[in-house]
């Protein structure tokens, strides 16, 4: 099998397992498949669950696209690839939950290759990441999430670097005009190794393990929080926080903007939008409220480290909310 | 009085009259004043009404700011102004109504001046516009709105050009990735005359008349539609359309992006966001539904012209919805 065939196999299997895991967690909602074609070549399968028991809106998109000429923005980054054909595939997902205590979750793994399949000078690289966006953050959840991702990285020391990827994620998922992170971060990497060369087998193994680590990183949190009672106040706060999610995705997210500018499949791109979001003028939580406490979480913090563990008892009181 | 003093006087009076007019139309809600300071010099008064009888969220912002050095993006457009101090003032407003049959409304008039007050080589220019964003458009409303603006322009033939400004508005307020306009347009102009010279008195007169034309352009529409009965279906459609409004403002609106990039007053900038917005995957109105009929309105059309009048009877059936 060629590299790209091997990657597609991993991505397809990953999407299927994720769909199954999320459907089981939801218990009621089902992912509907929307297939889409890319005018320039290839297409994808957007699988979307709306109005579930646990998930208000969830999407898991698989894309397998190709084209005759590398897009301009990539050609600028990789001049030797200019004018060459390209191939790209990836799985991306966004889940927005009903219960305000259940965080939103986003992850993707992607692969890009320039040149033809047998081009010895082909460039190729993997990118990816996973991050958690709670409205009411729990230290326990942030720690567990980061440690699962740290564990993933530690199983692939030759290609993965949790500390660097965590820092990249903190920087990337910052709503700059608000001076805050979108959530509590996770990991993010643009190019796992330089596109001129890397250990393909090792990198694909990380991606396969990464796809397999997503359910264990997120579903235990969903299970812990999905039954917590909430009212209008918590729902309103969730919708304000989703407003920030929208601000991040439409103003800063490179994948979203690249997709919109290049007239990609709009619905698959904007699958990340929350089902409902709220804005109000200068909305500030009351001093001493759980909502105010939440804001302290949206700054970089060493969640996987000993420091976060030491902080945990203090933050664990938020469980009682 | 200096030019800038005269403009500020017109802007202040305009804001006050607009507040009064919108409060009267709402009948219950009141605009709360939020004053803000600009770290680099000056500040503003954002007046915001939330949770009114007619308006779910409305904001009318007055800004009067100055700085030591013209911002980079403007210096690139006007190289002779680079390094000079600047002064800017403007009134901008966005109104989102409760009733899905009442359109959202946006307008602003702004003035920019470079150099000191007595600099004989100072550049100065006015910009502005007004546009209407219905969820359920009525031809009668679009025609009346455009004719009011055409009337404004026709009273100032030496500086105004309805046809050009209308076309600029159609182009500007396009959600490019959706291939549709945000609403039914209006007028928009970036620079009323070349910044190197213009007829200040005539331009200020247009702006004053423009500010005074906003209530007559919008409130009769509000009055016609605010009592129409609606249900969950119409509310849902309104929220989907507001999602498009958000997409436009965060992805394309130059004022919004400029404000966010330059760390302007975030709340005053994002006053334009709707109070609540919805997204769903590939939401398409049923064939033959009023929602599908609405989509036909979000393309450029000669609303003020004879052609639109000829179309009107056909579209007027939408009144019966």
Annotation field: number of helices of chain A? 10
CATH topology grouping of chain A: oxygen-dependent coproporphyrinogen oxidase
Question: What is the chain-wise order of helices and strands of chain A?
Answer: HEEEHEEEHHEEEHHHHEHH
Assembly status: homodimer
Instruction: Return the CATH architecture of chain A.
Output: 3-Layer(aba) Sandwich
CATH class label of chain A:
Alpha Beta
Total beta strand runs of chain A: 10
Uncertain spans of chain A, ≥5 residues at pLDDT below 50? 312-321
Structure commentary:
- Chain A is α+β, with helices and mostly antiparallel strands and 321 residues long.
- The first copy, chain A, has one domain (3-320): Coproporphyrinogen III oxidase, aerobic (oxygen-dependent coproporphyrinogen oxidase).
- Chain A has ten helices and ten strands.
- The first copy, chain A, has helices spanning 3-26, 72-77, 139-154, 162-172, 200-225, 232-251, 254-261, 266-269, 290-295, 306-316; strands spanning 32-37, 42-50, 55-67, 86-97, 104-114, 124-133, 174-175, 180-181, 185-189, 276-278.
- In chain A, the strands form two sheets. Chain A has a seven-stranded antiparallel sheet with strand order 1-2-3-4-5-6-9. A two-stranded antiparallel sheet of chain A has the order 7-8.
- In chain A, a hairpin with a 6-residue loop joins strand 4 and strand 5.
């Amino acid at each position: 099998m060629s590299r790209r065939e091997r990657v597609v196999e991993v991505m397809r299997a990953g999407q299927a397992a994720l769909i199954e895991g999320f459907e089981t967690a939801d218990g009621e909602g089902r992912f509907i498949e929307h297939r889409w074609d890319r005018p320039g070549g290839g297409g994808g399968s957007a699988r979307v669950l709306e109005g579930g028991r646990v998930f208000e809106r969830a999407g898991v998109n698989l894309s397998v696209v190709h084209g005759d000429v590398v897009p301009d923005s990539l050609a600028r980054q990789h001049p030797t690839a200019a004018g060459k054909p390209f191939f790209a595939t990836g799985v991306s997902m966004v889940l927005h939950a009903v219960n305000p205590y259940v965080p939103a979750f986003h992850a993707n793994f992607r692969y890009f290759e320039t040149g033809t399949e047998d081009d010895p000078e082909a460039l190729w690289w993997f990118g990816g990441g996973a991050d958690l966006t709670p409205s009411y953050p729990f230290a326990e959840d942030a720690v567990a999430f980061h440690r699962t991702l740290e564990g993933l990285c530690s199983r692939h020391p030759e290609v993965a670097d949790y500390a660097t990827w965590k820092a990249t994620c903190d920087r990337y998922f910052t709503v700059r005009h608000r001076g805050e992170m979108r959530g509590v971060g996770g990991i993010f990497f643009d190019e796992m190794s330089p596109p001129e060369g890397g250990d393909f087998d090792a990198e694909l193994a990380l991606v396969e393990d990464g796809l397999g680590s997503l359910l264990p990183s997120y579903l235990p949190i969903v299970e812990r929080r999905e039954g917590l009672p909430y009212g209008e106040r918590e729902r309103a706060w969730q919708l304000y926080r989703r407003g920030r999610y929208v601000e991040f995705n439409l103003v800063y997210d490179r994948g979203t903007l690249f997709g919109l500018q290049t007239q990609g499949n709009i619905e698959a791109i904007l699958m990340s939008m929350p089902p409902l979001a709220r804005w109000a003028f200068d909305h500030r939580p009351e001093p001493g409220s759980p909502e105010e406490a939440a804001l302290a979480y949206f700054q970089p913090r060493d969640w996987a480290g000993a420091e976060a563990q030491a902080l945990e008892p203090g933050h664990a009181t938020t469980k009682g909310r």
